[in-house]
Design goal:
The chain has two domains: about 10-70, Orthogonal Bundle (Arc Repressor Mutant, subunit A), CATH 1.10.10.10; about 90-125, no CATH class. The chain has six helices and two strands. It has helices at about 10-20, 25-35, 40-55, 75-90, 90-105, 110-125; strands spanning about 60-65, 65-70. Strands 1-2 form a two-stranded antiparallel ribbon. A hairpin with a 2-residue loop joins strand 1 and strand 2 (about 65-70). Helix 2 (about 25-35) crosses helix 3 (about 40-55). The longest helix is centred in the last third of the chain and has 18 residues, at about 110-125. The two termini are about 25 Å apart.
Length: about 130
């Protein structure tokens, strides 16, 4: 999987969050899902949605007389790609320390789930 473009700015991040939550939406549906202070003009939201689509973060499809926008990838895939790109550019020691700090912020149930997911990934790769 290639590196996905990064979300740029708070409004793009809020729009992506709305679409990850609702799955798909029109300009007005996305606009109504934004936090109160972020729901700008219809044309502003439409412009940002189109830019996100042009950059490959969203898909857009005409349904009847309207355009419906959908995330081009899951939120988990996006975050995973962004983390991987960031960690790949760091030294080995910085990478380990950053991951340790992230794990330290998780509650015990999340750490257990992470352990299980890591084991599953090792098994899929064929390593013990």
């Amino acid at each position: 999987m290639g590196e996905a473009p990064r979300v740029q700015g708070e409004l793009q991040a809020e729009i992506m969050t709305v679409l990850w939550r609702i799955g798909a939406g029109t300009v007005e549906q996305v606009r109504s899902g934004l936090p109160e202070g972020s729901a700008g003009a219809y044309t502003t939201i439409q412009t940002v949605l189109n830019r996100l689509a042009e950059r490959g973060l969203l898909t857009r499809e005409r349904e009847r007389n309207t355009i419906v926008y959908r995330p081009a990838m899951s939120e988990a895939d996006y975050v995973g790609g962004a983390l991987t790109a960031t960690l790949d550019s760091a030294s080995s020691s910085a990478r380990r320390l950053a991951l340790a700090r992230l794990v330290d912020r998780m509650d015990p149930a999340e750490v257990e789930e992470l352990r299980a997911l890591a084991q599953q990934a090792r098994e899929e790769r064929g390593t013990p």
